[in-house]
Amino acid sequence: MQNRSLLTNRERQIFTLLVDDFTTKEIAGQLEISEKTVRNHISNTIQKLGVSGRAQAIVELLRLGELHLN
Q: Most buried of the four, 6, 8, 18, 40, by CB within 10 Å?
């Protein structure tokens, strides 16, 4: 049985880049999407997790095993 991820593929890409210290602008450029779209994905993830910011979201995603440090 496959584990269902909390994150969409795009959210995972964005948070992986955030962990690697990319800015919103750099992430947008790398993924060829707008900065607003990047911010929307981040906001959606924060809301999903019930946390109050990016840093808390990253900590929670690491704790849940959804993200890994390289």
A: 18
Sequence-distant (6+) residues with CB within 8 A of 24 are: 35, 38, 39, 42
How far apart, in whole angstroms, are the C-alpha atoms of residue 7 and residue 45?
7
> Backbone dihedral region of 21: left (phi > 0), alpha (psi from -120 to 50 degrees) or beta?
left
Q: What is the pLDDT of residue 3?
A: 57
User: Which residues, at least 6 apart from 38, have a Cβ–Cβ distance to it below 8 Å?
Assistant: 14, 24, 27, 28, 31
